[in-house]
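Morning run. Coffee first, then this:
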Amino acid sequence: MMLFFKWQTKPDMTIHGDLYYEGKEFETRLKNKKPGELSDELRVALGMPTGLNKHLFPPPWLIAMQRYGPPPSYPNLRIAGLNAPIPEGCSFGYFVGGWGKPPVDESGRPLYGDVFGVTGEKAPREVDTNIDRSFWGELESEEEEEEEEEEDEEDEEEVEESSDAKKPDESGLMTPMEGIATPSGLTSIPAGLETPEMIELRKKKIEETMEQGGETPVLYTVLSEKAAGVGGAMMGSDHVYEISAKRKKKASSSDSAAKKFKF
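And here it is:
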């Protein structure tokens, strides 16, 4: 038991937000691996040399790719001896350390890419010398800030002076009233459409009756109470209000008002 705690190793764990499923810990992590780059472990397993000059030896599957073409899963992968030039100091051939036979057509043109390195030579890239390499985000000194403030104030004063100079002279825009007189006989209002001095919106008869001191409308009516028996009613009351007499009085007053305002 003590040996377990002494030699134990931390297991592979999922990161935050990652979903775990069965067998995930046995998958190969391909994040740091790229196709075409052979690790030292793989080179040792294939019997290939390791060290500084390991790139001068071709992989064992190069001859098969020259015969059958590049892998379908990586059509744009650059493979030396197939669609890319071989390293300097190496040569094609089937001897030990040779890079096989380049795939060409009947005219001697490469089938899969620039295997001879002829068209891969590019013109030297022009370097733009007009690049502002000054540091951005530097704090300006107080003297520069004061100079900028003075320049801004001068610009504002110039703008105000130019606006004052562009203002028109209002003294010559006053038109005398004598020249606006309309000639006689050219009225714009046709006959019969003159505006009256006063417009009466209310009816004259109603105003006259109100001025003569007609009856003032009653705002409310006080009803007199009368004692009564509860009887056998479930929600009866021991007093009632006399409403019949008030109804008759109200009906007679409304009839008389209608006769007065009839037109």
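Strands lie at 225-227, 239-241. Good start to the day.
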